[in-house]
Write a structure and sequence with these properties.
heterodimer; A: alpha+beta; Tetrahydropterin Synthase, Chain A; five-stranded mixed β-sheet; 4 helices; 34% helix; B: alpha+beta
Chain lengths: 140, 143
């Protein structure tokens, strides 16, 4: 088995504020991330696929196919958007990077088979870097 | 404990199969089919797995690791056209995947009988595309 990871970048804004909590609780929990006007990040997204390798072909997947999938189902909705206001995933969900990673993984899982029909390659991991200092990863 | 050493080498390659048509090759490999080749600054991360020696405090002598990686990979591949100058890429398509497997095959035997074993090779073809290989049979099915 071999794993291929492709890196993507997108910029988006968000505000961390839970409707379940009081303003005081939100402020205590999320601090400056609770700023009502929001703030943004240059996110770095690593998508890892895994599969067996046929040496004659030398490819686990065609990166262009993955690029198309990520562009259409992830980047188009997220890049240069306000996650709270523009992205339905976060209508009732706080757009923390944990929730964003979960959302991106679910988006890719929903459409994976439309681009990769066989058993392989499978989606192996989604890793989201919110800043250079904060990273989040889900294996599948 | 894992110990990782990073090196880089620059090389050119062409990705295409003689048995396929020009259109089929382009569909599979994209711009990498240009027969005159193109190049990358490949970055290789070699990870060993072992326990620190109680006397030296080291999993493996990093100087020796550096020498092994330089001898086996960097010296033969750096500033080379892989298809023409570095076997087996005269008959194996030098995709990032196949280069990673070849690097694994070259390195694994160098650690037989050593206190640390080869755990993973990660090869960056660009900043935005890398492959990981941990040897045949990993992940539940043969490579």
């Amino acid at each position: 088995m071999i794993r291929v990871t492709r890196r993507y970048r997108f910029s988006a804004s968000h505000r961390l504020h839970s409707g379940e909590l009081s303003d005081t609780e939100n402020q205590a929990l999320y601090g400056k991330c609770d700023n009502p006007y929001g703030h943004g990040h240059d996110y770095v997204l690593d998508v890892t696929a895994e599969g067996p390798l046929d040496p004659a072909v030398g490819r686990v997947l065609n990166p262009a196919t993955l690029d198309g999938l990520v562009a259409q189902y992830v980047l188009k909705d997220l890049d240069s958007h306000n996650l709270n206001e523009d992205v339905a995933d976060f209508a009732a969900l706080v757009p923390t990077s944990e929730n964003l990673t979960t959302s991106i993984k679910a988006r890719l899982e929903r459409v994976w088979k439309s681009a990769f029909e066989g058993e392989w390659p499978r989606l192996a991991a989604v890793r989201l870097q919110e800043t250079k200092r904060n990273g989040f990863e889900l294996s599948t | 404990m894992f110990v990782t050493r990073r090196v880089d080498f620059s090389a050119s390659h062409v990705c295409s199969q003689p048995s396929l048509s020009a259109d089929e090759n382009r569909a599979l490999y994209g711009a990498a089919v240009n027969p005159r080749g193109h190049g990358h600054n490949f970055v290789l991360e070699v990870t060993l797995d072992g326990e620190p020696d109680p006397v030296t405090g080291m999993v493996f002598d990093i100087k020796r690791l550096k020498d092994i990686v330089n001898e086996s990979v960097v010296r033969p591949m750096d500033h080379r056209f892989l298809n023409y100058e570095v076997p087996p890429f005269d008959h194996v398509v030098p995709t990032a995947e196949n280069i990673a497997v070849e690097i694994w095959n070259r390195l694994e035997q160098r650690f037989l009988g050593e206190a640390a074993r080869l755990h993973n090779v990660r090869l960056y073809e660009t900043e935005d595309l890398y492959v990981d290989y941990s040897g045949p049979g990993t992940g539940g099915t043969p490579a």
